[in-house]
Amino acid sequence: MPKDMHCLRDLWKTIDPTNPIGRESKLTQDTPRAHDKVFFNRMVEQRIAAYAKVWNAARRGMQLDHTMVHFIKGLDLRTGRPDGGSKR
Predict the structure, then answer these.
(1) Residues with Cβ < 8 Å from 64, sequence gap 6 or more?
(2) 81: which residues sit within 8 A by CB, 6+ positions away?
(3) Residue 47 CB-half CA count within 13 A
């Protein structure tokens, strides 16, 4: 949903919270979840590609460029998680 629509709905909730325009529908509740899922999947794909590059660079004895070093900074390369934990 566009940002303007969010602002309009929030304004309408302030004016009359009992009106159906101000209430969230199933679609507006599910949309952020769907976008978050797509974002999470994209990040997983990027991490997999980054680990492949790190592994290949280590195998060949090459140095990583500064963007790759920044991307993998704070990630545990053994588990693939930001904090090194085993949970999602």
Answers:
(1) 53, 54, 57, 72
(2) 75, 87
(3) 16
Tokens 């994209």 sit at which residue?
Answer: 42
Number of residues written out for the chain:
88
pTM as predicted: 0.53
| DSSP-assigned states of every residue in 14-34 | HH-TTSTTTSPPHHHHHHHHH
Tell me the average pLDDT of the chain. Answer: 76
> What's the token pair of residue 81?
């998680």
Question: CA-CA distance, 23 to 16, in Å (whole number)?
Answer: 10
CA–CA dist 7, 31 (Å, integer)? 16
